[in-house]
Specification:
Blueprint lengths: L2 E2 L5 E2 L11 H23 L10 H14 L3 H28 L11 E5 L2 E4 L14
Antiparallel strand pairs: 1-2, 3-4
Helix pairs in contact: 1-3
């Protein structure tokens, strides 16, 4: 759980490491790719309807090769689902390992120039022109 440090700065306890950041982006992209494969399999298994006609022979040869390797289309779909679940577990295990790793950066929090509610403007210093960056 976060606690408030000096001048209202948020501190993450040493036992909890954030990341990877942005976590929801990593999880969403992985899910989109994996679930897209599962969703596309039934359509692909019966042939792509809108495929460029010049690629039809190549698509059919690949489909038949996969079917010969895995005689039962349902078994191939099950194998795909097992692979998706395996990769989900591996990703989550990797995120947990990342969070448990003992390395911590020893950086001081930048000074807060302005804050209102949960919004903060931090001063990272530097010699270039001033700039502002925000994220929702």
């Amino acid at each position: 759980m976060e606690s408030m440090g000096e001048a209202g700065q948020r501190r993450v306890p040493d036992s909890q490491r954030k990341g990877p950041r942005p976590l929801m982006l990593h999880l969403s992209l992985a899910q989109t790719i994996w679930r897209g494969s599962s969703a596309a399999w039934p359509s692909w298994n019966s042939g792509w309807q809108n495929l460029n006609p010049a690629l039809r022979a190549e698509e059919e040869a690949l489909r038949l090769e996969l079917l010969r390797a895995e005689a039962d289309p349902a078994a191939a779909a099950d194998a795909l689902e097992r692979q998706v679940r395996k990769r989900q577990r591996e990703l989550l295990d990797g995120i947990e390992a990342y969070r448990r790793h003992p390395y911590r950066r020893a950086l001081e929090d930048p000074p807060v120039l302005w804050s209102e509610g949960s919004a903060r403007l931090l001063d990272y210093g530097g010699s270039g022109p001033p700039c502002s960056w925000s994220r929702p």
